[in-house]
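Quick check before the chapter quiz. The format below is the same one you will see on the exam, so make sure you can read both the input and the output lines.
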Amino acid sequence: MRLKWSILAVVFTVITVLSGCDRLLVLDPKGPQAKTQAHDIIATIWIMAFIVLVVFALLVYMLVKYRASKVGSDYEPPHIEGSKLIEGICIGVPIIIVTILSIMSVRSNYAVEATPKGYENQKPLVVYASSSDWKWHFSYPEQNIETVNYLYIPTDRPIDFKLYSYGPITSFWIPQLGGQKYAMSDMVTTLHLAADKPGEYMGRNANFSGKGTAENTFDVNAMSKGDFDKWVKEVKVTAKPLTEKKFDQLLKPGHVGRSTYNGTHLKFSPPPAMQHGGGGDGSGSVDHKDMNKADHKNMSDHDMKNMKMDDSNK
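Here is the expected output.
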C-alpha cells in the first residue's frame, strides 16, 4: 500500500510540473543560426540518451549474470590478468564520443559565427545593440532611428548586431534566432542573425549584471520588408529626436518602458573603437572600410579625425 501511494505521488508530481512547461524556445528555431544550434542540441541529447541506455543495460546484465545466488558458498573466482578487449572498449568508446561531439561543436561554431546560410549575397542590416543598467538601446544607423527595449527587424535579411555595453558585461540573446554573445564596455562584438518567419520573439540579457537582470529583457518583432519600411517612415514622422541629455538620463540605472527616437546616440556617444569577431581581421581594430555611410554620418568630426590618425599610424 505504501509503495502504491508513493508511485501515485510521483506520477501526480510529474504531471503537475509538466503541465506548467511551455515549449523550449531554443528548440523552436525561427532562423538559420538557431536551426543549426537546435539540431546540435537534439543530436547531443540522442547521443547521451543512447549512452545512458547502454550503460544501464550493461549494469542490469552484470547484476543478473554475476549475482551471488548463482554460485555456491565455497566458490572462489579465478585469477584474471585482464582483458585487452574490455580495456580497449573502455578507452576507445569515450574517445570516439568526444571526437564526434568536438567535430559537431567546431562545425556549429563556424556556422553561427558566419553570415547566416542562404543570406551570403544580401547586404545586412546593421543594428548597434548597447546595454545599460538595465535596458537595451538599439541604434539603426541606416535608418537613423533608435529604440529602447524593443527591436523591429525585417525577415529574410541578415542582421549584423554590433554589441557593446555602457555598464557591466551583458549577454545579448534571442533564443529563437540564435545563441547569446557578450556585450562589453571596451570593444564591439558582432553577432550575425536572421529571421525566416514573421513573429514576436523574446530577447534578454542572459548574463547576471546586478539586481535588475531579471527584467533586463526586450521584445523582438520580425516582419516583412514592406511592414518594416512602413514602421521606419512612421517613426520618422512621430518620434522625438534623441538628445544627448535624454540619452544620459536613459543610461542611469533603472527600468524604463519602450521608447522610440529620431536619430541615434552614435553621433555624440560612439561605440568603442575596438572590435572582436564577426569576420574581423583578428587585430582587434575596427575596419573603417566596412563601415557604411550612415555609420560615418552619425560619428562626430572629432571621432572621424581620430580614426584617420589611427589608420595613419598603422
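If your answer matched, good. The chain is about 40% helix and 20% strand.
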